[in-house]
Amino acid sequence: MADQYPAIILLAPLFAAIAVSLLGGRWGSVCLPIVLAALGLSLAVSVALLGQVAAGGEVVYKLGGWPRPFGIEFRIDPLNALLLIVVTTVSLLTAIYSIRAATTETPDKLPQFYTLFLLLVTGLLGMTLTGDAFNLYVLVEVASLTSYALIAMHSKRAVLASFNYVIMGTMGASFYLLGVGYLYIKTGSLNMVDIGEILRGSGLYGSKTILVALMLILVGLWIKMAFFPLHGWLPNAYAYAPSSTSCVLAPLVTKVTVYVMVRMMMTVFGPEYIFSFLEWSPIVVWMAVIAIVAGSIMALAQINLKKMLTYLIVAEVGYMVGGVWMANETAFVGAFYHVVSDAFMTLCLFLAAGAIIFQTGKHTIPEMEGLFRKMPWTMVGFTIAGLSMIGVPPTCGFFSKWYLISGAMEAGHWGYVVALLFSSLINAILFFRIFEVAYFPKFDPQEESAEEETTGRAGEPPATMLGPLLITAACLLLIGIFNQEIVTLIRQAVNTFGPIGFIG
Amino acid sequence: MKTLGAIAVIITGALLLYASEDFPSWGDPHSPANQYRVSSHYVQNSFGETSVPNMVTAILADYRGYDTLFETVVIFTAGIAIIAILRGPIDKRVRLRLASERKMRETNLILAQTSRILVPVIQLFALYVIAHGHHSPGGGFQGGVIFGASLILLALSFQLQTALDRVSEKKAVTLAAIGILIYAGIGFVCLLAGGNFLDYSALQVLMPVGAIEARSHGILGVEIGVAFTVAAIMFAIYANLSSHGRMKGGL
Amino acid sequence: MTVTEFIVSRLNYWIYIILMMIGLFAMISKKNLIKKLIGMSIFQTAIILFYVSLGVKEGSNIPILEHSVSHAAEHGEIIRAEDYANPLPHVLMLTAIVVGVATLGVGLAIVQKIHKEFGTIEEPEILAKIESGDG
Which of C54, C88, C110 is the closest to A162 by Cβ? Predict the structure, then answer.
């Protein structure tokens, strides 16, 4: 059975989605146990698969039993094995969180919500697993269609945000599809490894078609991951989505897309083509610098809590793109370590924001007065995530920034170092502003007591919301403490990219 | 927005023109895409390996069967998504207006009688297209769409309610889920029978046929699953979009 | 190569580029949401045209074996790759068409909901309504 692990990871949420849509209409109470069981199974198998990969190297799973260029295959190396665990853990925690959140936000559409939620997870897992360029497009669309619907299910404002997401998302996916077509017209293959070998072997580096294919694929993926200035769809879509939706979308979609970009760069085009032949590394790193600075400044301008967090995502995407394109091993390790840690940081922040909005009904930062007193444990989670975003040891945010900055110094790219420090500074301002507001009670005690009566619900959120939040916060510390183990895994994957590559 | 759009369009167009200079000529049998071993392997060996004369069907449901599974999932997702987006509480005024509309609408005699004759024929043809996908252009998607169209014709020529009486929305979603269950289930049975996921040749332990014939039967099985999903969701999408998710009134 | 040959050998590529530019322009610049969706549809169709035209082989047949051929193949006759059009782009585009239909359907549903919520499908009017605090 051990050789079937990759299929099981993907099939568990898919079958669960079918089961929920078949049974959910009649027996609404079976939805949640099915969701939790499927995601739990997926998580357990992902952990086992990571063990397999760490011990025995790359795992290839041939779907339909067809050999490499003819059929579709899964390719699992330490990078995506790690990402599979991130995806399943985040979705499992969000599923627990959604027990209360979803029943309040979308009470009459629970079976639909859980079906779409599971299909979204299936799509993300498939994007992570696949080793076929066209198959990736199909799974990107599965993940996108479910996100459009999950966002549009909610409030009035979310519907318009979702429409913009449909337009931008389709544009991105179509550019990607066209890029794959350009690769196909020159190589005749769709398998990522096979395309990579043909590109290296048959002297196609000088081809104009391949150059444009790279541009199309990159632009397509950058739209999907909200890389500045193509981020337009993200802030509204994530800020107005229901909280159980944004808790799964915000941490995962951008990270999985970053991984897809890594796959495209390293396996398909090859570091030799991108870094040595084209020498695009400085251009893209400067774009990332702009993204980091712009994202941070826009975050500073927000007073809506969730909206501020979405602009921080835009800045974080800049971190990861810059790290990957820095063209040296340390920065790459930092970038991928940041993929893992940022998924949990974002999750933690969105869970906390969701819990605050759920309990108090307040959306903006100035309204958060006295929260430390009212919901101390929620704020503990929020504080840990905030410190991690700033980069305070021993949280994981510190270590990812450490690797990113040392990588940038190795490459001699001081602009990126400055941008990273600037962004940390902005994060410090942002989060300490919130801590300050939330720590001190309102100046006028009478006014506050009057307000407490009107808001009704106060105090800690229910255990199903607080539990995932605190587990995530603990994960942030654990990822930080066990950073050596994760870095070793990432380095193991980097070595398989071949002798070419990393300059310096 | 206009200038921004124009700039983006011109840049994209220029890039694409620049790249197309490098393309092989149209219809060149020796272009890389047509000559590489992937395409020629399919043409030369797909019949020998799956015993399906229609190469497109063989690739669609077997070599790239995993793609097709998720293509079916995309359709299913779209159906669920549209229901989830449009479903909402109906206010009283709308309900009253709908009730009065329903009384006013009368079915046209010629239209009704013609579609009464046409619908069974269309449905029979749809089944033929599904079943004959191995030998001629056709298969689950094509047949499923034709079947779904017959239901839409029913809704157009009578009333939406007439079609919904035959296939309610809940039934449509159930049928669609069953379709994916058939597809993924066949793949999973392969996994249980000792092959990889969707490796239909593993089905030979359950059927009195050889590995190659088993692939052929597996392909037919998944095509039926696809047809279920596509037919049901096509109708569900029409019913929802034409009635603004109220499932009443319609066009 | 004469001028006609040059044009014919490139015509499909040019047409797809023109269609794509039209679609992209509509997606970015049009104010009406339905027009944006129409642009999206044109955009996706252009890509389908591109893929299908790269599977064409001059002088080839549709990729379905006739009975006589499949019989002969059973007895060891070799099927020549040049005789049949490349089947792979057709398969890929079947998938892309389905994805396109699904996206269009979801897009239309979202526009219907926008119309229900805001009473209009013109982007500037919707934005004005949100600005004025109606959102």
Answer: C110
Q: For an interface test with B, give the residue of C66, C95, C99, C114 to mutate (most B CBs within 10 A).
A: C95
pLDDT of A494 reads 81
What range does the domain containing C52 cover? 3-59+86-134
**B144 within a domain of the structure (yes/no):** yes
Cα B238 from Cα B163, distance rounded (Å): 11
C56: chain A residues, CB-CB within 8 Å: none
The neighbour count for residue C50, using CB atoms within 10 Å, is: 26
Number of domains in chain C: 1
Q: ipTM strictly over 0.85?
A: yes
Per DSSP, C79 falls in state P
Residue B106: both structure tokens together: 């009368």
CA–CA min distance C33, chain B (Å): 14
Cα of A126 to nearest chain B Cα, Å: 10
Q: For chain B, say whether C7 makes contact (Cβ under 8 Å).
A: no
Tokens of A71: 């059929």
Q: Does C98 touch chain B (CB under 8 A)?
A: yes
C67 in a domain, yes or no? no
The shortest CB-CB distance from B67 to any of A11, A108, A135 is to A135
Write out the E strands in chain B: none
- Which chains does chain A touch, 3 or more C-beta pairs < 8 A? B, C
pLDDT per residue over A21-34, tens digit each? 888 877 778 888 89
Please count the residues of chain A.
504
- Which of A343, A398, A385 is CA-nearest to residue A469? A385
d(CA B130, CA B57): 11
**Buried/exposed code over C71-98 (b: 16+ C-beta within 10 A; e: otherwise):** eebeeeeebebeebbbbbbbbbbbbbeb
Question: Quick one: tokens of A60?
Answer: 């290839």
Number of domains in chain B: 1
- Is residue C76 situated within a structural domain? no
Please name the residues between 147 and 206 in chain A that touch chain B, using a CB distance below 8 Å.
148-149, 152-153, 159, 182, 184-190, 198
Residue of A140, A156, A157 to mutate when probing chain C, most C C-beta within 10 A: A156
C64 within domain boundaries: no
Beta bridge partners of B40: none
Q: Is residue B8 part of a domain?
A: no
User: Does the distance separating the beta carbons of A159 and C130 come in below 8 Å?
Assistant: no
Quick one: DSSP state of residue A461? P
Q: C17: domain CATH number?
A: 1.10.287.3510
Is B59 part of a structural domain of the chain? yes
Closest CA to A395 of A326, A496, A472, A330: A472
| Joined tokens for residue B220 | 């037919």
Question: Pick from B27, B24, B41, C81: which is nearest to A187 by CA?
Answer: B24
In a domain, B85, yes or no: yes
Q: What are phi and psi of B27, to 5 degrees?
A: 80, 10
Q: Which member of C47, C102, C110 has the closest CB to residue A163?
A: C110
Using alpha carbons, select from A177, A152, A178, A155 the residue that is nearest to residue A163. Answer: A152
DSSP single-letter state for residue A102: H
Q: Does C117 touch chain A (CB under 8 A)?
A: yes
Give, rounded to a whole angstrom, the gap between the first and last alpha carbons of chain A: 43
Residues of the domain holding B119: 53-242
The pLDDT tens digits along chain B (251 residues) read: 788 888 888 888 888 888 887 888 777 878 887 888 888 888 888 888 888 888 889 899 889 999 999 999 999 999 999 988 888 765 555 666 666 555 556 677 888 889 889 999 999 999 999 988 888 888 889 999 999 999 999 888 888 888 888 888 888 999 999 999 999 999 999 988 888 888 888 888 888 888 888 888 889 999 999 999 999 999 999 988 888 777 666 66
Domain ranges of chain A: 280-504
